[in-house]
Amino acid sequence: MDSIGFLCDPDHPLFRPVAERLAARGFGVAFHRPTDSVTPADIDPLSALVAGETHPTALAALRYADASGVQTWNGFAATVALSARLVTLSALEAAGCRVPEVSFDGPQDGYAAGRRYVWNGPANLDETAPFHVEAVGTEPVDHRYYAVDDGRETHMRAVELRSELVDGDPVLRRTDVDVSLAASVRELLDWFDARAVAVDFSRGEDEAFYAVRATPTPTFTGAGMDRRVADSIASLTTIGA
């Protein structure tokens, strides 16, 4: 029986229901918290490994799985590259997106401190920011694009995430997919040979959208894509092939 390992909390809002779908299809599923030790003996029997968090333990497990021939859903190289802020900004610009300017000259008005990687956990308040990123957003809303490749086609959904509460406006809602933005997200997915990615866009003063960040461990919150994600993971295995 094909077995799939998940590197995340067993109550993960995305991968718990995805694992239930896969178990109903006949897959064996196992969860490993990234804060726990994940050994080669845990990985070797698996048909596929899924990292739900960008934790150092998860990255080490992905690296071992890739080297050992265990299929990975977003492998080590894709996860590290898509976690790197400057790498993804450069790639999104090459894919045709507008991106904010980056400054290495220290703090200045209109720029926010940047982080090299989107690892889990808070930034160190005493740490000097390695660069600063232009604050381009003019509204308290992120337009998040989720993309997942099921082995046959790439599925896309867009949601609006509101960072400030306004009477009558939902915190999260589905919205229409912009064709040009979706094309750029698909290119990002293809270039890094990834199975899933989320890209946040902010609307600038001229109403144009700027790509501001990406993540290789998307939660797909509000996207209603549990089945698509399950299809994508299953396609890595002999059962789903």
- Biggest sheet strand order reads 10-9-8-11-12
Would you count the extended β strands for me? 12
Helix content: 25-40%
Content of β-strand: 25-35%
Would you give the CATH topology of the largest domain? D-amino Acid Aminotransferase, Chain A, domain 1
Structure description:
With 241 residues, the protein is of the alpha/beta class. The chain has two domains: 80 residues, Rossmann fold (3-Layer(aba) Sandwich); 144 residues, D-amino Acid Aminotransferase, Chain A, domain 1. The protein is 28% helix and 26% strand. It has seven helices and twelve strands. It has a five-stranded antiparallel β-sheet with strand order 10-9-8-11-12. Strand 11 and strand 12 form a beta hairpin. Helix 1 crosses helix 7 and helix 3 packs antiparallel against helix 4. It is globular and about 55 Å long. The two termini are 14 Å apart. The mean pLDDT is 90.
Short description:
The protein has helices at 15-24, 40-43, 56-68, 76-83, 85-94, 179-191, 226-234, and strands at residues 3-7, 28-32, 48-51, 71-73, 102-103, 111-113, 132-134, 141-149, 154-162, 172-175, 196-203, 209-215.
